[in-house]
Amino acid sequence: MNFIYLANINKLSWSVLQDQKKILSHSAQLDIEKFRFDRDKCRNLVGKMLLLYSLQRHEQFQQSYLPVIDYGLYRKPFIHSIEGNFNISHAHDWVACVYSTNGEVGIDIEYVTPINIIDYQNAMTKNEYQIALNDPHFDFFQLWTLKEAIMKAQGQGFYLSPSSFELPFPFRNDAIVEVNHTRWFVYSQSFANEYRLSLASLYPIVRNVQVIPLQLDQFRQ
């Protein structure tokens, strides 16, 4: 099962939120303070708060602080002591954390804005680019968030080029995309009018996902 927790940070200020740094290790607190802008500090910390909320509800985790987060070769975060898998993403006013009970998972959200598709040619295969230029039903933000979700689930991030694999068009949820001999089930939806959210999982998603918006008071310690 995949559980996606979402929080809106539009009305949050760092001066109010920063007390919640206590859920993090000392080194993780110092990492957050390295961000130049308070908005980025809020996004980072709320992502960790959502992760702690997930562990408390799905892993019988009793602590009020996060266990140590380690990072793989390509900087994918993981926690040795938990049974499930997780991934975090944020864009503009929204932060998302997915917790999966059945294998590796990746999530991406993006704020949908007008773009010039020519500027993003390198993010697509030649076939995808031709579709983008010629098909009025092409949705770049759907394609981009799906690709980034796969790249994160694969554990390589941008070390895996988004133009090195292709998504089916027209897209349907629970389609399968094979990348480096791994088959990923993919899911995408729009939300909050101006955002696109996409997920990649080792197992079928469509009937196996819950998207849960939260208010800050529901998971703040």
UniProtKB/TrEMBL annotation:
Belongs to the P-Pant transferase superfamily. Gsp/Sfp/HetI/AcpT family. Residues 22-98 form the 4'-phosphopantetheinyl transferase N-terminal domain. GO terms for molecular function: holo-[acyl-carrier-protein] synthase activity; magnesium ion binding. InterPro entries: 4-PPantetheinyl_Trfase_dom, 4-PPantetheinyl_Trfase_dom_sf, AASDHPPT_N, P-Pant_transferase_sf. The keyword Transferase applies. It comes from the Bacteria. The keyword Transmembrane does not apply. SUPFAM superfamilies: 4'-phosphopantetheinyl transferase (SSF56214). Keywords: Transferase. One of its GO terms (cellular component) is cytosol. Residues 105-199 form the 4'-phosphopantetheinyl transferase domain. It comes from Gilliamella apicola. This is Uncharacterized protein. GO terms for biological process: lysine biosynthetic process via aminoadipic acid.
